[in-house]
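Annex B. Sample input.
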Amino acid sequence: MGSEASFTHQNDMKSFKAIIESIDKVHGDIRVFRLKPVQSYAFDAGQYAYIAFNDLPPRPYSIASRPGPDELEVHIKRGVSEASAHIMDDVKVGDTAMLSEPQGYSTYNTAKGDPVIAIAGGLGIAPLKSIIEQALYDAYVAPIHLYWGTADEGEQYLRDYFEDLARTHEGFDFHVVTGGSVTEAALQAFDDLSLHHVFLSGSPAMISHAIPLLLDKKADRSKISYDKHPEAGNLKA
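Annex B, continued. Sample output.
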């Protein structure tokens, strides 16, 4: 079985206060929030946290920055709820947010030096950004292949960033897929995945579609990592 998160709903998660340092509008519906925890906040690349903005209930958001820097980076896309509208329109720099302890098991450390194929759909690029930044920071020796699928070119807000990384880091390559199945596009380049570690990040439908395709290419199920965010719980103040 893959490294699917099995985090159980908890009502007493420890919380960490953070200050919103910046908010960047990178696309019409996408914002990049940078939060600075007031106290030390340790996590593994690829994890997520429950975050409560102002008085809103906490929701799970992937951490897009690598461990180490003082700030945490979170990418949020506008949804249809009033809470989503409040986060996108009313939360401002200087506001506080509450973070849970880090969650999730689809992390950089699970790759264990294997060649990596990372496949993201839409905003699923966020935790893979954290993993790839950590790998490049560590001078990861094995090849890393990143495939990012989006509905349209306008959503490719990190395209220039990853293309620059690919130009300056030998062993890392980056591919964008606009429309269609990003997994099917990625697997055209591979016949045998038995030695690879695969990171999946996207909607449940994308992950469900991807797994049998990976297994058909001889992927080791124990080397397919992904997380499913549980329903948001309550943070303990």
